[in-house]
Design brief:
The complex is a heterodimer of chains A (about 170) and B (about 130). Chain A has about 170 residues and is of the alpha+beta class. Helices cover about 15% and strands about 40% of the residues of chain A. In chain A, the strands form two sheets. In chain A, strands 1, 2, 3, 6 and 9 form a five-stranded antiparallel sheet that branches. Chain B has one domain: Immunoglobulin-like. Helices cover about 15% and strands about 40% of the residues of chain B. Chains A and B meet through strand 1, strand 9 and strand 10 of A and strand 1 and strand 8 of B.
Chain lengths: ~170, ~130
């Protein structure tokens, strides 16, 4: 009898141990969009009246990466700056120009993003029809007055990126 | 041997993913539901935001209509302090009469324009991520 009870106890313990090893890992993949700052841009100053992020003029292009988990859920809107968020006192007007372009994609089928983009004012919209990552580069140029020199000081401009569900 | 190789591959993928998502800002769920709250004539929507931007600590909550115009709402903090790699659940309360107009709830990064300056002339990136009400 004692042997029977001991064997039964061992079997039950074994079964419990087996259950303890069956640990479920649950995950929830849900649609989401992440805006990632890859590179904060820097303005080069090729001439006294120009600030530009173009690399050949000494600038650094801001790079933004947008990741979407599920296809066809989001559009992204990126805007190049049309004013300085901080600068020395400027007494003349600044003429702004810019361009948003796709610089890299995680899926070759995203190559149509660049041709399908919609531009208005200083905004550019892309329809993110595929899941994955898209890298955007931002060209920004500011020209001061008519051949006037930008006064010395710190200049900062804001590039805005938005992820909007469709 | 196969198990060791599998572990190494999974480890590399995990580290890779951690690096890839090193500086993002996100808001979930994408399509939240707006529901009646415990207060009469007030509706509530619950969201979670995650900060993976090391350069940003504060985010502003916005409630917008279909044309991105602001709508009156209440929440505990309109500007939330969200340290790097932390997430926060928040509730947004909207009056019953405004519920039909609410389309987007967004979080916007708040930038410190002086401390973000890395050189004499630079650009900083502001991010706004929105969720759309079902």
């Amino acid at each position: 009898m004692k042997k029977f009870l001991a064997t039964t106890a061992l079997v039950i313990m074994g079964a419990s141990a087996a259950y303890a090893n069956n640990t479920n890992i649950q995950g929830n993949v849900q649609s989401r969009c992440s805006i990632v700052t890859e590179t904060s841009g820097v303005y080069g100053n090729p001439t006294a009246d120009t600030l530009t992020t173009v690399a050949t003029d000494g600038g650094v292009l801001p790079i933004i990466r947008v990741d979407v988990i599920q296809a066809d859920s989001y559009k992204v809107k990126i805007s190049w700056p049309d004013s300085f968020s901080s600068s020395p006192t400027l007494t003349d007007s600044v003429v702004w120009d810019g361009e948003i372009e796709v610089s890299a994609v995680s899926d070759a089928n995203m190559s149509s993003y660049e041709t399908d983009k919609v531009e208005y004012n200083n905004h550019t919209e892309y329809d993110l029809t595929l899941s994955g990552s898209t890298w955007f580069k931002v060209t920004s140029t500011a020209e001061y007055g008519v051949d006037k020199s930008f006064p010395g000081g710190v200049y900062t401009a804001i590039v805005t990126s938005e992820c909007i569900p469709k | 041997m196969k198990q060791i190789l599998l572990c190494i591959v999974l480890g590399v993928i995990f580290v890779g993913c951690s690096v890839i998502y090193a500086a993002g800002h996100q808001l979930t769920p994408t399509y939240p539901e707006i529901k009646e709250s415990h207060i009469e004539n007030v509706y509530v929507v619950k969201l979670e935001t995650l900060n993976r931007r090391e350069d940003v600590r504060f985010f502003e909550i916005q409630v917008l209509d279909k044309d991105m115009n602001p709508i009156m709402f209440a929440t505990t903090d309109r500007i939330i302090s969200l340290p790097y790699l932390s997430r926060k659940n928040f509730s947004v309360y909207v009056r019953k009469r405004d519920v039909k107009q609410v389309v987007y709830v967004c979080t916007v990064s708040k930038l410190n324009r002086l401390s973000d300056a890395e050189s004499n002339a630079n650009t900083v990136i502001a991010s706004r991520v929105c969720s759309k009400i079902k």
